[in-house]
Amino acid sequence: MPDQSTTQTPPRLEVRSVSKTFAGRTVLSDAGLAVAPGQMHGIVGQNGSGKSTLAKVIAGYHAPDPGAEVIVDGRELPVPVRLGDLRAAGVGIVHQDLGLIETGTVVENVRIAALKGAGPARRIHWDREAEEAKVALDRLGFRRSLRSLVKELPPVDRARVAIARAIQEHRPGQGVLIFDESTRALPTDALEDFYATLRRLLDDGTAALMIGHRLGEILEHCDQVTVLRDGRVAAAGVPTDGISEGDLATRMLGHSLARLSLDARERVRDGTKVTVRGLVGEALAAPLDLDLEQGGIVGLTGLPGSGFEAVPYLLAGAAAARGTITIDGEERDLARTSLARLVAAGVALVPEDRPHEGLALTHTMAENIALPWIGDRGRPWMTGRAWQEREARAVIERLGVVPPDPGELVGKLSGGNQQKVLLGKWLVGETRLLLLDEPTQAVDVKARQDLLRAIHDVAAEGTAVILASSEPEDLVTVCDRVLLFRDGAAVQEIAAPFDADLIIAATYSNVTKASAVGGAADRQGGSS
Fold it and tell me: What is the pTM of this model?
C-alpha cells in the first residue's frame, strides 16, 4: 500500500464533515474517514452507531446535512451523491439487505446496472450477459444455475450474487468497493476465497471499505479500522496490527466488555419433555429424532446447506414436514398441523431473515410485539392499547431496546434492536419450545450478549430451546449440547463442556477426526 506521506496520490475515498439528522434526532455528527489506494479499511461500531447511515450517505441513499463532502480519487462528488456519479467514479456498493430483485434471475440481478443493448432496438443478448455474470460469480465460488431465481437461493448464494454485481466492473487502479455487512452470510471457506479475490483487486490500487460486526474478521483482513460510537468517530484510521478484539470492543463501547458467562445450573429442569420423532423435510436426508428437557438448550450447527438451518422451520410449521412433535404429553403430526396451531401450542420461531419473515418494519414496536397475541388479549371490537404498551415496555426494559419508545417504527431501529424486538415478542406468551435460526447474525458485541443472556433466561423459566447457529461462540456460551449436521443428517452429538475450537474442528473435519479431537460420541439422529 503506498505511503501517502511520501506520495501525492490522493485517497481513493475521502469523507468529511458528514452529519445526518432524522426527525430531529442526530445519528451522525461530523463523521469522516479516508481510504488509501490498495487499502482495506474497516468500519465498526455498535448497532445504531451510524455505520450503515454513513454508507448510505456515500451511496446517495440519504442526503446528508449541509457541509458534507464525498471525494473519490481527488474529485469531489455533488452531494447528495447520484448513482451515475458513483458509477463514473468507480464506486461499487453492496448494502446489508443486498438490494436484490427476488423474482429476477441470477444473471438479471448481477447485470441489471450493466446491461448492454445492441442494434437499433437495443436488444439484450442474454447469452453474452450470462458469460459476463459468470466471470464475476466464478470468482466467488457460485455453482448454481444462472437462470435460478434469487428467491430460491440460500443466503450464502444471495450474498455472492450481490457481491458479484459490485465487483464485475471494477477498473484497475481506480475507485473503491464498499461492503455494508455483505459477507455475513458467507461460510468460513467462502470468506477466505472472497478476501483472496478482493486482495487481488486491491493489488492494482483499488480500495475497499468493509463495514461489519465480526471484529475478528475485520482485524484479520483490514489494514486500518475506523470506530464509530454514538454517531461520532471515536477512532479514525487505526492500524489493525497488534489490536485485539477486546481492544476494539473497548473503543466501540467506551469501556471494557466483560466476557459473558452463563451457568446452565441456573436453568431448572422440571422433567417435562419435548419429543421429536422422524422429522423429515426439505434439506434433511435422514429422519431426525430429538428429546429436549424444558430448560435445556440444544444447538444445531454445520456447514451451510448441511440441513441444520432447516430444522427450526420444519418444527415450527413454516416449511412442509413429516414426523411428530410431542409437547407436554400431547403428540402432533407435523404433516397435518399448521404454523398457527403450533404457535397456540407454545412453539415460537425466530427466523434468520427478520425484515421479511419476522417483523413488520412499517409498524411500531408495540404493534410487532402484540401481533401474535391479539387473538388472546384483544376483543372482536377492539385490540386494546394498554396491554400492548405494557408488554412492549416490559420487552424494552428486559432486553435493553434503544430507543425505549414503544411507538418507534421497527424499520428505524438498528439491526440489533430489531432482533431484540423479534425475540421479545415471543417472551410475552407462554412459550414451550423456542426455535432460533442465527439469532445473533449481524448484531454488535453488546447486543449479542444481551440476546444470548435473554435466551439463557428464557430457558431458565422452563422453555426448551433449539438454537441453529454457525457461530461457535454462541453455541459454547448457552448450549448444553450441540448436534453437528452433515449432508442433511445429524451425524454427531457434542456434549458440554466444549469450546469453540472443538465446534470448528467438528464442523470442518470428518466425523472420526472430530471425535478424536473432542472425545465426543457419534450419534445418528438425536438423543435423549
Answer: 0.67
| CATH 3.40.50.300, domain 270-346+431-528, yes or no | yes
Q: How many CA atoms lie within 13 A of 174 on its CB side?
A: 12
Q: How confident is the prediction for the chain on average, in pLDDT? A: 84
| 19 three-state secondary structure | strand
Concatenating the DSSP letter of every residue in 350-392 gives E-S-IIIII--TTSBHHHHHHGGGHHHHSBTTB--SHHHHHHH
The reported pLDDT for the residue numbered 173 is 73
pLDDT in tens, 5-35: 444 688 999 999 999 998 778 889 999 999 9
Residue 426 burial by Cβ neighbours in a 10 Å radius (0-12, 13-18, 19+): buried
Distance separating alpha carbons of residues 183 and 185, to the nearest angstrom: 6
Q: Which residues partner with 149 through β-bridges?
A: 105
The b-or-e profile of 146-159 (16+ CB within 10 A means b, else e) is beeebeebebbbbb
Query: Residue 180 pLDDT more than 50?
Result: yes
The highest-level CATH class for domain 1-90+175-258 is alpha beta
Enumerate the domain spans of the chain: 1-90+175-258, 100-169, 270-346+431-528, 360-429
Separation between Cα atoms, residue 144 and residue 164, nearest integer Å: 14
> Average pLDDT, stretch 62-75?
93
SS3 content of the chain, % helix, strand, coil (to 5): 35, 25, 40
Helix locations, 185-228, DSSP H: 188-202, 215-221
The CA distance from 71 to 92, in Å, is 14
Model pLDDT, residue 446: 81
Domains 1-90+175-258 and 270-346+431-528 share a fold: yes
Specify the pairing of strand 297-302 against strand 464-468.
parallel
pLDDT tens digits along 133-170: 998 888 777 889 999 999 998 777 887 888 888 877 76
